[in-house]
Amino acid sequence: MERVIQFLERHLLPVVEVIAQQRHLQALRDGVVSTVPLLLIGSFFLICAFPPISFLAMLVDPYVSDLLTVVNATFGIMGLVASFSIAYALASSYAIDSLSSGLLSVSAFILASPFTKEGHIDSGLMGSKGLFVAMIIGLLVVEVQRFMIKKNIIIKMPEGVPLSVGRSFAVLLPGVVILVSIFIINVMLARIGGGSISEVINRAVTAPLLHLGGTLPAVLIAVFAIQLLWFFGIHGQALVGTGVMAPIWLAFTQQNAVAKIAGEAVPNIICQQFIDAFILIGGSGTTLALAVLLFTTVKSNQLKALGKMSILPGFFNINEPITFGMPIVMNPIMMIPFIMAPLLCVITTFVFMASGIVDKPYVLAPWTTPAFVSGFLVTGDWKGAALQVLNFFIAGIIYYPFLKIWDENKMKEEQEQMNA
């Protein structure tokens, strides 16, 4: 085990640190995450429109279409908002005019999308269907803008001109180059029957990524990576969960909400709620069960104190007191259950939802929503809460023998300190 850890420290961690600092990945992460507040608001109105209790459903039935307008104004513009926020985040990292980059990206994103036969913007492409198009457009717009600024291919206004006016003229040439280029490429693609830029990106990038990211093996690999990075003290959820997988999982979230609104079957098992509500119970590592065991079963004074301190944050899915206080970071004994528990919960949850025993999630709840409540909220099914209870006990069974070993070690340390 020691050799494995040394090997990973020497060869894996430097690569991970480089990836974590990569500005384009940071911009994608920050830009996509900025859409989450809108999705949470939309989810609240989605619950109101489709309450999981039949009496309430009858009560709100006359107002469903009104409530869904808010859902459409939040879930339905996920891609449009991301096109702005991704460009804004990347431009900020380059210290260039982030506001103009964001606005230019929105215009480019809309232009890259096919219009309706009547010449109107296709609102169906402004949500998750346009998310990956927004990601690519947002990054390209800023890179073109940065290149032209670096080569001094911009209009500079004389001193004394207000800053806002100067910014407007500075973005003029990059804006013309970007929009004209997209227009010409779109016309050429239309002439050869290739569709539009948006359709090409969706065929070449979006469809394969969604197909791959929605599979059980892909989720197991992602969760394994999250747990392994946490073992080395790196925030795996922020790097892998939010930084890499969030665009895919949030796209599935939006698809599920759209299907629910349309009265269709919810299509996706894997989505952001699958991870937040059913796997990260208590935080990365499914550690709520460990917090309860620390509070109720250990004999070491240090671990008893840790249990008292960590159980309340654990109910809100915050587990830093455990990961750094126990510690789990760089602890080979606790590494095994810390990785195994969430992986088994992934399999359990997937099986129960794939078999139809538990409904698939369609509402996004804040990640701090307490366990045994969030399962009911995101699925509208009481069996969602029951599945969380099952995952809680599975994690507890996995953690228990390893915790006993660690407890005995800590008791020996405390006894030696008392005898010294």
UniProtKB/TrEMBL annotation:
The phosphoenolpyruvate-dependent sugar phosphotransferase system (PTS), a major carbohydrate active -transport system, catalyzes the phosphorylation of incoming sugar substrates concomitant with their translocation across the cell membrane. It comes from the Bacteria. GO terms for molecular function: protein-N(PI)-phosphohistidine-sugar phosphotransferase activity. Keywords: Cell membrane, Membrane, Sugar transport, Transmembrane, Transmembrane helix, Transport. Coiled coil: none annotated. Residues 8-402 form the PTS EIIC type-3 domain. GO terms for biological process: carbohydrate derivative transport; phosphoenolpyruvate-dependent sugar phosphotransferase system. Pfam families: PTS_EIIC. It is a multi-pass membrane protein. This is Permease IIC component. The keyword Kinase does not apply. The chain crosses the membrane at residues 38-60, 67-88, 94-111, 131-149, 169-189, 209-230, 236-253, 274-295, 333-354, 385-403. One of its GO terms (cellular component) is plasma membrane. It is found in: Cell membrane.
